[in-house]
Amino acid sequence: MSELAEPTPLAELTTLGIGGAPERMLVAEDTDELVAQLTDLWQSDEPWMVLGGGSNTVATDDEIAGAVVLIRTQGIERIATDEGVVLRVQAGETWDDLVAYAVENRLAGIEALSGIPGSVGAAPIQNIGAYGQELSSVLLGVELLDVETGERSHVPASALGLGYRTSVLKRHGGADAERDAVVLSVDLLLTEAPDGMGRPVAYTQLASALEVELGDRVELTRVRDAVLRLRRSKGMVLDPSDRDTYSAGSFFTNPIVTEQASRVLPADAPRWPQGNIDETVTVIPLDGSSDVVAPPPIQATLQREVKLSAAWLIEHASIPRGFHLPGSRAAISSKHTLALTNQGNARADDIAALARFVQARVQSEFGITLQPEPVLIDIEL
Ligand SMILES: Cc1cc2nc3c(=O)[nH]c(=O)nc-3n(C[C@H](O)[C@H](O)[C@H](O)COP(=O)(O)OP(=O)(O)OC[C@H]3O[C@@H](n4cnc5c(N)ncnc54)[C@H](O)[C@@H]3O)c2cc1C
């Protein structure tokens, strides 16, 4: 790892193109050295953070206290197992290069995750997902370096609390992560596909783009091409000539609320049932039980949860695509309601003001507080 003489501003290292320079900037190109240097860093009180591709980070324009460590470690190792092929990938590899590698090598399982920017090491942090696939369905585990113990260990995916855009490793908003650790490498279990076919298509929009039925299997290359085409039409593939792609992807997560809470929304508001909970359960009340006669069981209704569409809520709170506050260079993408974009020379305050405006409009219209998806560095919403 080397320390840069002149720390690079995060505006040059994040996809939003916003953010000040840290006091110190270190670059790690080799895993053992990354471990040694992080360990050194943790023995002092110096604030620190790691950065991969900067595509899920929104940072203050001010100087960032302490050290930023850029993870640039490389390497893809292929391990044949009885269950399939395991790819052990170093954290600094580029996610989409890995997808291209898998597709070229006829390995199925991540083809629908084509075009997501960023690094492999950050992929488990929020359990990336798109077009019917999620990292959690192929993630075997990760190698972590834990801040508290300073130890390296292989941790199974089941211990990472992977959920919808979350894990125990994620710093939600700017808060501390449940498990403070750095991902050194990621193990993915992919399916060998000698016929070159991908996993069953699991997303309606992708199925119609491919002109197949949900559940059909399609060539990996065709799935990748179709996903990239769909993503481009929404400004969700990085393109230096398209200001709508200067974003952190979706700025808000789709809210998950109880089915009861969702009833206040109009019938045409999209909602997707979550989990697979029984509607009613039998409960034996403890109050009044005696050794002699068991009390009669009662039926209780469990609350189902539903996921709502943040994009629908924003649009129906009268915030159209392309919207910006007067004089601001931060705008809702003209192609995708969920992306807050830097249309050129926007400042962190512009993005934060737009985000707060969207939250306030949706809150007053529907009583729901949208939560930010990216990690915020010294920014309050
Ligand atoms: C145009 C666009 C489209 C997007 N589309 C999607 C999408 O479809 N689905 C989706 O899920 N996401 C999407 N995203 C969000 C983003 O690409 C992903 O979250 C990605 O995994 C972030 O990777 P990164 O390396 O850029 O993360 P960074 O922004 O560099 O880091 C994000 C967070 O992870 C931490 N981190 C990074 N690397 C490590 C590591 N090795 N160990 C521990 N912590 C680490 C950082 O400290 C930070 O807190 C999109 C973003 C953009 C800009």
Automatic annotation (TrEMBL):
<feature type="active site">
    <location>
        <position position="373"/>
    </location>
</feature>
<keyword id="KW-0961">Cell wall biogenesis/degradation</keyword>
<dbReference type="GO" id="GO:0008762">
    <property type="term" value="F:UDP-N-acetylmuramate dehydrogenase activity"/>
</dbReference>
<dbReference type="InterPro" id="IPR003170">
    <property type="entry name" value="MurB"/>
</dbReference>
<dbReference type="GO" id="GO:0051301">
    <property type="term" value="P:cell division"/>
</dbReference>
<keyword id="KW-0274">FAD</keyword>
<protein>
    <recommendedName>
        <fullName>UDP-N-acetylenolpyruvoylglucosamine reductase</fullName>
        <ecNumber>1.3.1.98</ecNumber>
    </recommendedName>
</protein>
<dbReference type="InterPro" id="IPR036318">
    <property type="entry name" value="FAD-bd_PCMH-like_sf"/>
</dbReference>
<comment type="pathway">
    <text>Cell wall biogenesis; peptidoglycan biosynthesis.</text>
</comment>
<keyword id="KW-0560">Oxidoreductase</keyword>
<dbReference type="InterPro" id="IPR016167">
    <property type="entry name" value="FAD-bd_PCMH_sub1"/>
</dbReference>
<dbReference type="GO" id="GO:0071555">
    <property type="term" value="P:cell wall organization"/>
</dbReference>
<keyword id="KW-0521">NADP</keyword>
<comment type="similarity">
    <text>Belongs to the MurB family.</text>
</comment>
<dbReference type="GO" id="GO:0005829">
    <property type="term" value="C:cytosol"/>
</dbReference>
<feature type="domain" description="FAD-binding PCMH-type">
    <location>
        <begin position="18"/>
        <end position="193"/>
    </location>
</feature>
<keyword id="KW-0132">Cell division</keyword>
<dbReference type="GO" id="GO:0009252">
    <property type="term" value="P:peptidoglycan biosynthetic process"/>
</dbReference>
<comment type="function">
    <text>Cell wall formation.</text>
</comment>
<dbReference type="InterPro" id="IPR016166">
    <property type="entry name" value="FAD-bd_PCMH"/>
</dbReference>
<dbReference type="GO" id="GO:0071949">
    <property type="term" value="F:FAD binding"/>
</dbReference>
<keyword id="KW-0285">Flavoprotein</keyword>
<feature type="active site" description="Proton donor">
    <location>
        <position position="250"/>
    </location>
</feature>
<dbReference type="InterPro" id="IPR016169">
    <property type="entry name" value="FAD-bd_PCMH_sub2"/>
</dbReference>
<keyword id="KW-0133">Cell shape</keyword>
<keyword id="KW-0131">Cell cycle</keyword>
<dbReference type="InterPro" id="IPR006094">
    <property type="entry name" value="Oxid_FAD_bind_N"/>
</dbReference>
<keyword id="KW-0963">Cytoplasm</keyword>
<dbReference type="Pfam" id="PF01565">
    <property type="entry name" value="FAD_binding_4"/>
</dbReference>
<keyword id="KW-0573">Peptidoglycan synthesis</keyword>
<dbReference type="GO" id="GO:0008360">
    <property type="term" value="P:regulation of cell shape"/>
</dbReference>
<dbReference type="Pfam" id="PF02873">
    <property type="entry name" value="MurB_C"/>
</dbReference>
<feature type="active site">
    <location>
        <position position="165"/>
    </location>
</feature>
<dbReference type="InterPro" id="IPR036635">
    <property type="entry name" value="MurB_C_sf"/>
</dbReference>
<dbReference type="InterPro" id="IPR011601">
    <property type="entry name" value="MurB_C"/>
</dbReference>
